[in-house]
Design goal:
This protein is an all-alpha fold. It contains 5 helices and no strands.
């Protein structure tokens, strides 16, 4: 609910209360009093719904919770992508400098400069492109995400 929706709701509620047959005086004190009552009712409803959702989550067996996590396509794909990323990055960080120095016979300074450049730019561009792709598929903006 946006701020404008909330303001519209409060205005409609004020009009309903003040235009009723036993209408109250439309002054700031009465408006404030009625809005506080409405807000407390809304808070109670939100707490009630939140507690109901918590109760439902706690009652689910482990396998059902696991199934709901595994069936979330976006979650599984992101976990797979991160696993692959860490596997490759760790391997590259460990083996590449030695490979370039000993097998390719490059100077240590040259290897350090190129390796540092690639190590800094690749993850940043990967995160940016991955964010764009994830958002294009619905990302975290969908109910399922």
């Amino acid at each position: 609910m946006t701020n404008q929706d909330f303001e519209d709701f409060l205005t409609a509620m004020d009009n309903e209360v003040f235009d009723a047959p036993a209408a109250l005086d439309r002054n700031s004190r009465n408006i404030r009093k009625i809005r506080m009552k409405a807000l407390s009712k809304i808070e109670k409803q939100i707490k009630k719904e939140t507690n109901a959702n918590k109760d439902n989550e706690e009652e689910q067996p482990f396998m059902q919770k696991l199934k709901s996590v595994i069936s979330n396509k976006i979650f599984v794909l992101l976990c797979g992508a991160l696993t692959g990323l860490y596997f490759v990055v760790t391997g590259i960080q460990y083996w590449t400098p030695d490979y370039l120095e000993n097998v390719m016979h490059q100077e240590k300074t040259t290897v350090s400069i190129y390796f540092s450049t690639v190590s800094l730019t690749a993850p940043v561009s990967g995160v940016i492109i991955g964010g764009i792709v994830t958002t294009a598929f619905g990302g975290y903006n969908t109910k399922k995400g």
